[in-house]
Design brief:
mainly alpha; Serine Threonine Protein Phosphatase 5, Tetratricopeptide repeat; four-stranded mixed beta sheet; 21 helices; 4 strands
Amino acid sequence: MKYRFILSFAALLAAACVSAQTQVQLSPRQWANKAEVAAAKNETVTAIKAYNKALAGGYVSASLFYNQARLYAQRGEMELAFGALKQSINTGWYQHEEMRNDADLVPLHADPRWTTQLQKAQDNERDYRATHASPESFKFVTSDLSLFWNTYDKLSSSGDPAALFEREYLDQGTPGLHGFVISRISSGANLAKTIARYPKYYAAIRPATLQVAAVESTIRKSARKFKSMYPQALFPDVYFVIGALSSGGTATSEGLLIGTEMITRTDAVPIDELSPWLKAGTKSIDLLPNLVVHELMHFQQQYNGSDLLSSAIKEGAADFLASLISEGNFNAHIYTYGYANEATLKQEFLSDMREKNRARWLYNGSSSDGRPSDLGYFIGFRIVQAYYQKASDKQQAVSDILNVKDFERFVEQSAYFVPGD
């Protein structure tokens, strides 16, 4: 018994050493992800070290350099901050308004180099606009879907699903997939855990995910309509990935990132494994164009604000404008409840709209007492709809909706909360 115990202990120790070695030997993409996670937690030293590891390994992106510059500026390390900022802009960073308004970069403003770098970012934006102004030119990227399924097919023979997904899916993916890891997937371990939790669902959605390319023409048709309504519209590349059932999509500097597993449910897909939120949140591929257009609206929006009102208008505006140029509504279940209870919801929202805590109205992921989650989408939609309907110049109204500066003034102009209006 003692001998077997020693062998078992040795085996455990060897496994632990291998595990520790695996943890240390992160890929450059994993280091970049680790850096973003640490930065979000304000773990500045850890984040900077991880950024440097990612860069040393050859992982280069404009947003990585930009976020590194922010951390250096926070620490008062001006030379390093300007060095990273310059690298970001040389790599293509173009969001000069975000850069101008970034509180973390304020320590750089007094330096003459700031104006130079800001101008270069503005030049990058001009170039970006020139190459992304047409609804015919954006890329429709589906390569991450086949990459996922090729990796998925190796699960049965893999002793470490998390490492498999990190190595053969996440590391090998497009810039869009890399962006989705940071904002939504988190890690190979989280993805493997999610698939293990919902095995029947993932196994059944494959056929629909492989049909995504067929909706490209429908999405471009909506994009053309939008261009006629908003001539200054930009059309970023669209990346279709498979994630961890956490999000249907997001708009980032990489482009529009679509969590395809959320929007490829069919009648043949079993849903008995899913939570109530996932049962409500997973949709048919018929609604994929509507979701993509919703995210396209987010890409256009120039909003500041983090309270409930600004967030509800942000989501409601995306839903409303998408309704003008695409079929269906991937949030339809919210609207059914919203219209039936609108008078009560309006009063409740008025009481809450200046709050920073948005959990009762947005991004809460759960329902209670028959009340669906995310009703802020509905209220925001109705505010924006009221504004649009009152406007005599509809094209100007679209521009106003996408560039709200004073949210309370916008609500006042909509007259949505005026009794009897």
